[in-house]
Amino acid sequence: xxxxxxxxxxxxxxxxxxxxxxxxxxxxxxxxxxxxxxxxxxxxxxxxxxxxxxxxxxxxxxxxxxxxxxxxxxxxxxxxxxxxxxxxxxxxxxxxxxxxxxxxxxxxxxxxxxxxxxxxxxxxxxxxxxxxxxxxxxxxxxxxxxxxxxxxxxxxxxxxxxxxxxxxxxxxxxxxxxxxxxxxxxxxxxxxxxxxxxxxxxxxxxxxxxxxxxxxxxxxxxxxxxxxxxxxxxxxxxxxxxxxxxxxxxxxxxxxxxxxxxxxxxxxxxxxxxxxxxxxxxxxxxxxxxxxxxxxxxxxxxxxxxxxxxxxxxxxxxxxxxxxxxxxxxxxxxxxxxxx
Length: 340
Known about the structure:
- By secondary structure, this protein is mainly α.
- Helices cover 74% and strands 2% of the residues.
- The chain is built from twelve helices and two strands, in the order H-H-E-E-H-H-H-H-H-H-H-H-H-H.
- It has helices at residues 3-40, 48-76, 101-116, 124-142, 150-165, 167-185, 193-217, 220-251, 261-279, 288-312, 323-330, 332-338, and strands at residues 78-80, 87-90.
- The two termini are 16 Å apart.
- 38% of the residues are buried.
- Residues 322-340 have low confidence and may be disordered.
């Protein structure tokens, strides 16, 4: 598929995704509000499992739509070397980048909460509120169905535009797009590292909810539950971070990526969860449970700040737009409507 055909194919694909996803986003937002109501109203307690199950099914259905979109996008998004005229490969954009990250997080929390419901029904209300908040934020701010992948589509639109011009502009655009294809989108780390982190984030959400229950109800069983979920999240987080290290070395060769604010906050989060898990060795000491609970809460707060930092602190491993990225993003309008 040449550049012009790719452009002509992607625009109708975006239109179909918006036609399906626009109403779906509204339904998810309304369902999130209803889920929060069911969680907050004690008289609806018997409906909580059904409400969470329905929300999980709705989110899973939306994920199926996104999978369809990504498969079709993969078929169309091809990189061509301007010096040879031969394609170097397709771009496999994963399901956990840009505006789809919050959506994936919401889906994972919903699935884990459903698995948890038989053991700790007392945590259902908190888990439902977390799913409602994440799902609402995903569709209101991430807009995965109506404004999908703005950074990728902006870069790809710039690449296609440069290819039509030829010369040095085409060579430079190709180098950037091909590097993004090899070291980011198509890298096998991308298909393992982020899912492990989102699984850990979902487990930490449930651990945080159990910790709050322990603080307010003063019952040790909640501490055990919080520890169990934190341990599961910590394992996934550690493996995910270890896998991300060689990826960073290959993707950001020559860059001082270790000074990235997001990378440093992620390390801080890992150290805090390490301290939290080890603090349980002294849990039987007097008043130690307060320190354990405080570490758990602080660790989760840092987790949230680490996630937010990716959008506000520029640098490696960040979605905060630098001036050059702003310029690329503006070219998305070409792909979304200016070229047909």
